[in-house]
Amino acid sequence: MTRKYVLVFFSVLVVCFLGLVAPVLAATISGTVTDSNGPVEGISVGIGICLSGYLGVGCGLVFVTAVTGTDGMYMFLDRPAGGYYVAAPSNWKDTPYVYQNKDALVTEEGQNIQIDFQLELGPSIRGSIYQADGETLTDDTYRVRFQESCTVLGDEPEVAAVSGLYSSPVLPAGDYYLALLNEAGEFIGWRTALEIPSTNCADAVSVHVDENQLMAINFILKNQIVLMPIYHMLLRN
After folding, report:
1. Which of 114, 140, 187, 229 is deepest in the core (most CB within 10 A)?
2. Cα separation of 94 and 88, whole Å?
3. pTM score, two decimals?
C-alpha cells in the first residue's frame, strides 16, 4: 500500500510539473513600425505587463523586446490574458525618434491584436539638470538655449527644464553652444569642458549635432553654478 501511494503521489507531481512548463497558447500582439519614409527596420519594440491585469494599473518595466524586420514588422507570441503596454522605440535614448507607448488588452485565447507605430523625429539634444547631491531637480526654474554662436545671447531656440529634464527641438546639423538661464531669463553660464563654467565665450565648448542624431547632455548644479556635463567627468576619470 505504501508503495502504491508513493507512485500516485509521484504521478501527481509529474502532472503538475508538466502543467507548469507547458507553453501558454494565448494572444498575438504584432504591428508595423513606420516613419515618413515607410517601414523602419531595426527598431526595438518592447512589451510590458500590467501586473494587476488592468490597463494603466501596476504596469511594470518593459521585460520583452522584439526588433522590426525589413518590412517594419514586429510580433509577440503567446501573450496570456491581461493588460499590456507596447513601446517603440524601447531604446529611445539610442534613436532620433520620439518614444511612444500604447495599450493592449488580451481577453481571450487566439486573439490577434495589431498595434502600429508611426514614428516622428524627436529632439536633437536631451538631458537632465541635477543638483549637487545627484538628485534631479523637481522644479522648473532653469532654461536651456541652443545657439550657433556664444558671442551674445540671441533669439535661438530655448526650452524649459521641466522637473530637471529638457529636450531641444529638432536642430539642423551643425555646432551649438548650450547656455543655461534661470527662471527670469538671466544668463548663468555656457557649457564648458571645465568643472566650473565660464561666462567667457573663449571657454565655451560647442556640441556637434548630425542629422537625425540624438545626444544626451546632462548638467550638475552646485551653489547655482553649472558644472560640466556628466559624461565629461567620466572621461576625465
Report:
1. 229
2. 12
3. 0.53
